[in-house]
Write a structure and sequence with these properties.
9 helices; globular; Rossmann fold; alpha/beta; about 260 residues; methyltransferase; seven-stranded mixed β-sheet
Length: about 260
């Protein structure tokens, strides 16, 4: 299921886009389907191999001119030029990265002025409940290492465009937020309560079937339930930002 709203992001066919921390590729596939020039970036070579296979399988179904490829690397040192991308998605990845500010600065660096960025992370309240119910939920290799509030993450991103040396620089512009996957939060509370690896528990199995129904069929009753639950207990928080154009200096003030 998609977490990011690509209409809100402003995605258009032909734009160069980055899915940073692409994982299984769900957002990269949607951007490709919409005709973008997509880079799915991740440090997991096995996941990227599967994403590449799906890109190949989709090639006859996407708009003419759309391109997609995978790239393996480190989020703290993106192998891309300054301002290379029109749109960037970083979905459910920053909560895994120890040096998150450095990763955010890299995202801002490779985004063009005027371009937009969508970042999603686990929402504070549902995540706190999971951490309280089970240490195993987050104490795993590559697991979640922090819980963000919206104010903390907005502050980190908006400041990321400013140079460290005190020279003038424009802050990223926060454009709004949304919440997603309200039906998923209770599932993870249940998993945390009975054991995150206890997939055979009857309640976990029944709830999992409900989520599969939502993902595969997206029936009206579950869509309506999502609209009610997303603002209240949506598991994911999505923040949208725009990179400002540089402010031209006034030549009359030059020495």
């Amino acid at each position: 299921m998609l977490t990011v709203d690509f209409d809100r992001l402003g995605l258009k066919a032909g734009e160069r886009v980055l899915d940073m921390g692409a994982g299984g590729g769900r957002h990269a596939f949607e951007m490709y389907r919409r005709g973008a020039d997509v880079i799915a970036f991740d440090q997991d070579a096995e996941e990227l191999a599967k994403v590449s296979e799906w890109f190949f399988a989709m090639r006859e179904e996407v708009p003419e001119g759309a391109n997609a490829e995978v790239k393996e690397g480190d989020a703290l040192s993106l192998p891309f030029a300054d301002g290379e991308f029109d749109r960037i998605v970083a979905a459910e990845v920053l909560e895994h990265i120890h040096h998150d500010v450095d990763a955010i600065k890299e995202l801002v660096r490779v985004l063009r002025p005027g371009g937009t960025l969508a970042i999603s992370v686990p929402r504070w309240l549902p995540e706190v409940v999971n951490w309280k119910l089970s240490a195993d939920y987050h104490n795993t290799t590559g697991g979640h290492i922090r819980i963000y509030t919206d104010h903390e993450l907005i502050d980190k991103v908006t400041k990321a465009g400013r140079p460290n040396d005190g020279t003038p620089g424009e802050a990223m512009i926060f454009e709004g937020k949304s919440y997603a996957h309200g039906l998923h939060a209770p599932y993870w509370w249940l998993k945390s309560a009975v054991g995150v690896d206890n997939d055979k528990h009857v309640l976990v199995k029944v709830y999992h079937q409900l989520l599969v129904w939502e993902i595969m069929k997206n029936p009206l009753p579950l869509r309506l339930a999502g609209k009610v639950l997303d603002p209240v207990i949506g598991k994911s928080m999505v923040l949208y930002f725009r990179k400002p154009h540089p402010v031209a200096s006034d030549p009359t003030t030059a020495d």
